[in-house]
Amino acid sequence: MAITKQDILAAADALDAEGVKPTLAAVRKKLGGGSFSTISEAMKEWKADHAGGAAPLREPAPPAVVERSADLAAELWAVCMELANARLAGEREALEAAREEMEASQREAAELADQMAADIEALQAQVSSLQTRAESAESEVDDMRGELAGALERAGRAEARAAEIEKRADDAKTELGRVHELLSAERQQHAAELQRQATALQAAQEAARAQGEEIAALRAQVAAVQGERDQVRAELTERNGHIIDLSARFDAAEKAHQEHRKRAGEEAHRCAEKLTKAAAERDEARTEAAHLRGQLEALAGRAKAGGKS
User: How far is 46 from 183, CA to CA, in rounded Å?
Assistant: First the structure.
């Protein structure tokens, strides 16, 4: 709330009632603050009101002088001279009092200027401290930016490795599908072969009953067919082992990819939080520094105005 002229006059009256001379510094202290120019203007009015009793009196000529004007011209002149001398003495006293009052006002202004200079120095120290804090915060923000850039770069490399792993996994899936198709075709071929062999065996057995001399040849043929079947089974077993190995490698690659992506995301999140916190502290320090600079400029302006007064 702004200090009004009535507040200043009331403070001056209170100090005068307490027996304390209402100087500018005393009034400002009584008010708990205030503009020097505002207090100075109000105190001029207060001092003028309280100095009214000391002004020289301006009265008409006494009745005795009027009644005896014709006969007592010399006495009238003497009385006028006495009145003039008395009035001159009063004016000299008033002038001396005004001079003393002006010197006191100048001393008060000097005291107030010293107080304001001390306040300015304190604010300058606060501004310097805040500037140091702001520079420290900006340095920390730069460090955080570097860390975040490094984390983003590492995350990019991790994404590239993850893409490569995914490609390898896709290749493994494709290979696995091709192996499955090959096994299916081989199984169908093997089943057809077994069916053919069973038909041939049945025909051979029927022929063997009719032709005993061909039994040995048919048995040799069956043995050869069984050897081919065992070979096919061995190849199927080997292919199944290859498929199991590809599946295990795919599962391991998928798990490593998920874990690496999780770690990269957590690191990037931590760096982002640090950067946000440092930026908030920097903005707060800049705001406070700007506010104190405004106060410093206002105080410097008032001190300059008070010095000119």
Answer: 114
Amino acid identity for residue 78 in this structure: A
- State pTM to two decimals: 0.28
Q: To the nearest 10°, the Cα dihedral for 125, 128, 133, 136?
A: -140
Pick the CATH number of 142-300 from 1.20.1630, 1.10.287, 1.10.357, 1.20.58: 1.10.287
Do 303 and 117 touch, CB atoms closer than 8 A? yes
For residue 108, give the nearest of 184, 183, 21 by alpha carbon. Answer: 21
Counting beta carbons within 10 angstroms of the beta carbon of residue 243, is it exposed (0 to 12), middle (13 to 18) or buried (19 or more)?
middle
pLDDT digits (tens, 9 = 90+) for 216-244: 887 888 688 688 878 868 887 887 787 68
Interatomic CA distance for residues 183 and 240, integer angstroms: 9
